[in-house]
Each structure stands twice: as C-alpha cells, then as structure tokens.
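User: New here, please read:
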Amino acid sequence: MTKASVASLALLLVVASSAGSQTMPTEVARQLAAFGTEFDGEIAAATAKIYASQPRVYKATEIKVTKNLAYGAHERQQVDIHTATVRKSERPVPVVVVFHGGGLVGGSRAATANVADYFASLGWVGVNGGYRLAPDAKWPEGARDVGAAVTWLKSHAAEYGGDPEQIFVMGLSTGAYHVGTYVFMPEVLPPGTARPAGAMLLSGPYSFDFKSPSKGELAYFGEDPKRWPDMVIPGHVTRGDIPVLFTTAEWDNARYLWPQAAVYKELIDKHGARPRYRQSLGHNHSSQLLSVGTPDTSVSRELVDFIERTVKR
C-alpha cells in the first residue's frame, strides 16, 4: 500500500481521535513542540532529561522489582517483574509487559522501567521486557523474543499474582514493530507461542523506505532488497482477532504515520477488526512512555482504559 492511498485515512484518524482534555504541563508541551517532528538520539536524550524532573504519582517504596528473570539463553532475553507492596488483590490481576525502542540496534529496558512501575502501582503486574538486538539477531527474532517472553509469563505470571489469561503486551517504536510482528504475523513464530490478551502499539515503524534504509534496518532486515517487502507488516496481517490499541504522537515524523494507517486499514478490510487509535497530543516520539506515571495522564489513561475494557469483554 502506498503512502498516498492511506493519506485520507490517516487524516480521519487524527481528527477523530485527538479530542479530549490535555494534562501535559505547559512548559513541557512548549519544550517538546520546539523539537518539531524530527527525532534522533540527541532529542531522545533531551526528552528523557525533561521527564527526569517530573513528579510521580506513586512512591518508590510502593514497588517491588524482581530483576533479570530469564526467558531465554541470551543475556538480553530477560524481564524484570514489578509488583505492588501496598495495593494487593486477592484475585489474579492483569499483566502488562513493555518493550523498549532503540532503532533495532540499541536501547535497553532501563528506558521503560517507569512504565512497569506505574502498572505495578495500580496493583497490576508490570513487566519490563528485553530482547536481542541486530545485527546479532535478525528478522524475525525480535518478534520471536516477544512471543517467548509472553510464553514464559504464561507459565510464571501466577507466581506474582498475575492472571495468565490477561497478559497485555506493548511496545514503543522498534518495540512496537516487534510486538506488531508477533501479534499480526503469527506464522513467523515457533509453534506453541502463547498469544496475548491485547496489544498496545505506540509509534511503531511498521514499514520503512526501501530506497533509503537506515543502518539499523540493514542490520536487522539484511541487505537483500528482494526480501524486504515480506518483512514489513503492511500487506502481511494474517491475524486480526487480538484487541489492539495504536497510538502515534502529535510530533511524530511522517514515517511512523502512514504505515500505522496502512495496518489499521488492513485490519478493518481483511479481518473486520475494530482496532482502537489515539493521537497523543503534545507528545513526541519518546515522551509518550516517559509520561507514564507522571501527573500527565494523557497517555496512561488511554492505556489503562484499553486494558480495563478488554478485560471486561
């Protein structure tokens, strides 16, 4: 599907889903807007610095973290499990596992610890997931790592008070691409891979510019252009029965927008699905997840509402 063929749908998605109150502090909004739609390592670091000083809606003492639990043999195939020390439930609770971004060749789960903390503070089980990076791990190993982590959690979630039938998986940027491949292209996964209860995909690069691939894309997808069209998600959605929430940021570069619209349209046209979409007003590419756990609930409330509504189905 071309960029032009999904432009109208993308515009409708933005108009239809960007309404609502905004809780982002004015000064934070001003600083993020100043970056514009470009995004690189320098802007990511500056964005992280902005949010480092933001207050939290929970105390560190409310969270217990069990670190470095292996779901595979590689040192990056590990998860950290975050649970509440205060808000306990007698019933099994939802499990939310988050995967970081990093351009396919970088990043670590340290960047998303706040997300797991936040869900733990609600009394749920928050999981911070790692995965192998390119060039050591090439397509579709990222998606297989997501699936392996969910499969491991299926067997172990109950040990931490989690419900094995309510495991939600989410990712930002590259993490969203790996989660999306896992959710929408199950044929690339090993037999017996567990399926999630739902997925939250934040600003994923579900496709890329075949004429000008980045170093990270070459490292992960390889250097044979003939294979690339089969490795992206648009055009290859074969599973559409898992509840999905998509988000993009107001200040996202267009490279994240048209592939998201293409996948959204494919879910509707081919599978009769009803995926959910939200534009994160005022946010840039990385601030969406950095805001989770702060008084700015513009992203976190959407994530929580999606999970709660899915659990009740």
Summary: The chain has one domain: 3-311. The first strand starts at residue 63 and ends at 70. The beta strands are 63-70, 78-84, 93-99, 125-129, 162-172, 198-202, 244-249, 276-280. The domain at 3-311 is CATH 3.40.50.1820 (Rossmann fold).
